[in-house]
Structures are given as C-alpha cells and as structure tokens.
Amino acid sequence: MPGLIKVRPTKIELVKLKRRLALAQRVQKIVKDRLSILTMEFLQTARDTLEAKRKLLDESSKLYKALSIAAGYHGYIAMEKELIATEADLKVTAGLRNIAGVRIPSFELMGNGKPMRGYNLVDTTSWLDRAAQLSEECLRAIVELAELQRNFELLAMEINRTKRITNALEYIVIPGLQVTINYLNMKFEERDREEKARLKRVKVLVARG
Amino acid sequence: MPNPLQDEVKKSPYEKMLQECLRGELRVVNAGLPQSQKRLATLLNEKYPHVVCNDGSTHLFKKSELEYLASMIDTDEQKALPLPMLIELGANQAEAAIICEGKVEEKVISKALNMPVTCEERRIRIYKPQLALLRRKFKTTTVYIFSPKIVA
C-alpha cells in the first residue's frame, strides 16, 4: 500500500505533485518500452542459444565418430602426423553492439583466406576430410554459442535491473503521488465546504442583526 | 525556447531524482545510435565494418550479415542502402517503424519478411512478431531508436 507523501496542504504543492506525477509517468513509459524490447531480445537469444547448443552437440558427436573412423583407418600416429600440417591461425573478430542500452559482445570467426586443411590428400581418406570439415563447423558453433551465452547473461541482468525500476515506479512512486494528489484534492474540497458553511452561518448571523 | 523539463526542477531532491532517471534512461537507450550511417557498398569494402555511435563506442557489423544483405540487392542498390537501419519504437507498443530513405529499404525488408511492405511518410510500419523476425535476421544491421515523441 503506497503511503502518503508528507507535504504541506497548499495549492502550490498540489501543482508540484501533479508535475511530478507527469514526469514519473514519462519515465515509466520509456522504461516499460525498453523492458518490452529487452524481453523480446532475451527470448530470441534464449531460443538461438538452445539451437546453437543443440547444433554444437550434434556436430561434436558427428566429429567424434568421423575422427574415430579416420583414426581406425590410418592409425593414431599416422593421422596425427597428417594433422600437424593442418594447424592454422584462427582469427575471431570481436566487437560490441548496443541493444536498447545494453552493450553486448559480437564475435565472428574470420576465414584466413586459405583453406584450413593442409594435409596430403593422396595419403588420406575422405573420412579425414569429413572430420576436418566437421571440426571447422564445430569451431563456428563454439564461437556462435560463446556470443549468444554472454548476450543471454547480459540481457538477463539488464532485464532484472529494469524490472526493479518499473516495479518501483508502478507500485510505489506513481501510486504514492496519486494517493497524495487525491488526499490534497479532498482536503481542498473539504476546506471549500467549510468555507461555504461558515459564510452561510455568517450570512444568517448578519441577517439576524 | 524554455525547456519544460528544466522548469520542473525546483531543487526538490525527489523531482531531481525523477529528472535524472528520465535523462539517464533516454541517454542509455539512445547511446547506441550511430553518429552517421554508412552505405552497404562502403561497409563491404571495409576490413572491420563498423560505425561510430553517439557515446563514442563502435558498432561492429557482421560480415556474414552484410553479405546476406548484399545478396538480396544489386550493386546500385548496395550504394544506396544506409546501415544500420533504424527501428523507431512508437507510442503504440504493438508496432514499430523502420526509418527509410528510399525504395531499397522497402525491398530489403519485404524480402526478409517475405511479405509486401509499404513506406509511408518515410516509415515502414511493422508489428512486433515481424520485428522479432527482422531482428533475428539482421542482428547487427539494425538498431533501435527511442523517439522523444513517445516520451511526451
């Protein structure tokens, strides 16, 4: 239950309170709009995160299978020897973007211009090709998931903060102002009625003489 | 011109707090707006495609998204498409408007949403479900604007 704000019962205070109420309602409007956008983005990010996780798990299990078969075919030592040649520098572009006031990271795996696979195609089987291709896809999925997961956390934190402001405005600040304005209005009406009754009484007394 | 927001503050800590809250929120929500937009053709040629925001930070575009956009339109249109596209949130919470300069935005949005859209008074009006779809496809190539109109 919102409490009355302690103010002097004057007309000036009433005007001030009305201004405060208008201001509080404007703040509430922006905060609510922002909250609705953040919630929409949060839900979208949650869906994307789930999808990315599922994709990563699928790719990983496929990769494991392909690697196992390749290792079985070539033998571990021969396969490792071939794979040494595939080492390449990875480049991830990291930046920031802004969603309704929340700065969230953005990662993108950059292609380095040359194919990642550098092993001998004559000595190896298509299973190794498959494993290499799947590992590239896994890497992309990991980078994507890292971005989404961080976005998810940041958006959730901001939603919590914004919700607290919205609730404070909706349940404490604005009702408190409205109750006080109503109280002052009633007080002024009561004063008017008293004044009228007093004037009537004075009129009667004057008439009696 | 007198600023009504300024006039309202009469050194009362309560009003000052509300005023600061309003200013802070407006500043925060619009901090990510770009100082100026860049054309798609320009961004495609940049090594790290980005624009500078109002708060001095940079907004990075994903190359994959730019390439997806480029695949939707021809070379001349790429020179005409300003990025990031601005999504204005209106007084009506159920809809949003995409600010557009020409026909090229209309074409891009129409293709992305797979439905015809029309540009009226330099705005393409879309509903919330379409906005979610659009944001899903263009995460880095669109930004939100909280217009002062909705505050009034």
Layout of helices and strands, plus pairs?
The complex is a heterodimer of chains A (209) and B (152).
Chain A: H1 11-74, H2 76-84, E1 91-99, E2 102-110, H3 126-208
Antiparallel strand pairs in A: 1-2
Helix pairs in contact in A: 1-2, 1-3
Chain B: H1 4-8, H2 13-29, E1 38-39, H3 40-45, E2 50-52, E3 58-60, H4 63-72, H5 75-80, E4 82-83, E5 85-89, E6 95-99, H6 103-113, E7 119-120, E8 123-127, H7 128-137, E9 142-146, H8 148-151
Parallel strand pairs in B: 5-9
Antiparallel strand pairs in B: 1-4, 2-3, 5-6, 6-8, 7-8
Keywords:
heterodimer, A: 209 residues, mainly alpha, Helix Hairpins, 2 strands, 75% helix, rod-shaped, B: 152 residues, alpha+beta, five-stranded mixed sheet, two-stranded antiparallel sheet, 8 helices, 9 strands, globular
Describe the protein's architecture and organization:
The complex is a heterodimer of chains A (209) and B (152). Helix content of chain A is 75%, strand content 9%. Chain A is mainly alpha-helical. Chain A has one domain (11-208): Helix Hairpins (Orthogonal Bundle). Chain B has 2 domains: 1-30, no CATH class; 31-151, no CATH class. Chain B is built from 8 helices and 9 strands. Chain B has helices at residues 4-8, 13-29, 40-45, 63-72, 75-80, 103-113, 128-137, 148-151; strands spanning 38-39, 50-52, 58-60, 82-83, 85-89, 95-99, 119-120, 123-127, 142-146. Chain B is globular. The chains are: A mainly alpha (209), B alpha+beta (152). The interface between A and B is large, with 33 and 41 residues.
Annotation, overall tally of beta strands of chain B: 9
Please give the order of strands in the largest beta sheet of chain A: 1-2
The domain tally of chain B reads 2
End-to-end CA span of chain B: 17 Å
Main β-sheet of chain B: number of strands, strand sense, barrel status?
A: 5 strands, mixed
Tally of extended strands of chain A?
Answer: 2
Q: What is the overall shape of chain A?
A: rod-shaped
CATH architecture of chain A: Orthogonal Bundle
Label the structural class of chain B: alpha+beta
Oligomer: heterodimer
Strand order of the largest sheet of chain B: 7-8-6-5-9
Q: What is the radius of gyration of chain B computed over CA atoms, rounded to a whole number of angstroms? A: 18 Å
Q: Secondary-structure element sequence of chain B?
A: HHEHEEHHEEEHEEHEH
CATH class of chain A: Mainly Alpha
Q: How much is the average pLDDT of chain A?
A: 85
Approximate helicity band of chain B: 40-55%
Most extensive interface, residues per chain? A-B, 33 and 41 residues
Q: Strand-residue fraction of chain B? A: 15-25%
Cα end-to-end separation of chain A: 52 Å
Q: Helical region count of chain B? A: 8
Which range does the strand content of chain A fall in? 5-15%
